[in-house]
Each structure stands twice: as structure tokens, then as C-alpha cells.
Model the fold of this input.
Amino acid sequence: MPSSSVTPQKQAGLQRRMEALGIREADIEERFIKGSGRGGQKINKTSSCVYLRHLNSGIEVKCQQERSQALNRFLARRELCDRLEAQIKGEQSRREQEREKIRRQKRRRSRRQKARMLEEKRKQSEKKALRKPPEEE
Done:
């Protein structure tokens, strides 16, 4: 991934991050597309827009932030890492939330909690009783 606009330290950092997430260059489908939008002839004539697709996860990224194709390649790979990381962490977080919910449901309530809950129920029933139409004698 040679580029003149991205420092070697940033490239090395991105490469380490990709390895940590298990992203290999062989798993990425990369295409260059002609840009669109504002920018005139330069955007419309050059293929500076980068399209990446991670074959294993199916995540697709399209980057056209800069005029430089090399910089867009770097930014697209960084975005791919961000999305994959969010997907992985989101899955772990969802599992943890489900476990915690089951733990809360199984846990016994304290005496104080029970008393508070029963008091709330009593107040609610009194409110509902006031909604009823008056009984005729």
C-alpha cells in the first residue's frame, strides 16, 4: 500500500490494527471508481474513489474524502477496521447485556425493594379505583 501522503508510522499502525482484527489483504476486494459530486473535471475524470469489500464479513466501504487515491485507500482501510471493530464489540456487548438481564431477573429482591414495590402497586390501584364511575345505590 505505497503512498506519499500517509506517513509510514500511520501505515504501520493501520497494518498492526488490521492484523489484530484478522483482516488480510487477500480478504479485501478493492476497486477504484470515478468520483462524483462537487469538484469539477478533476473528480469526474480520475478514479480516486476507493471501494473496499471485506469478503469474510461482507462489510463494504466507499471513500472519496480526498483527491488523492493513495490517501483514500488509507482512509477506506481505516474505516473498514472501525466498522469491523464496532461489529465485534457490539456482538460482545449484546451478549453481556443479555447475561446481565437474566442475572437481574433471577436475583431475589431485598425486603426494602419488595416493600417499595408493593407500596407502588397499592398507590397505582388507588389511582385506578378513582377512575371508576361512581356506583349507584
Observations:
- The chain has a mean pLDDT of 88.
- Residues 31 and 104 are 49 Å apart (CA to CA).
- Residues 69-106 form the longest helix (38 residues).
- The chain is about 55% helix and 10% strand.
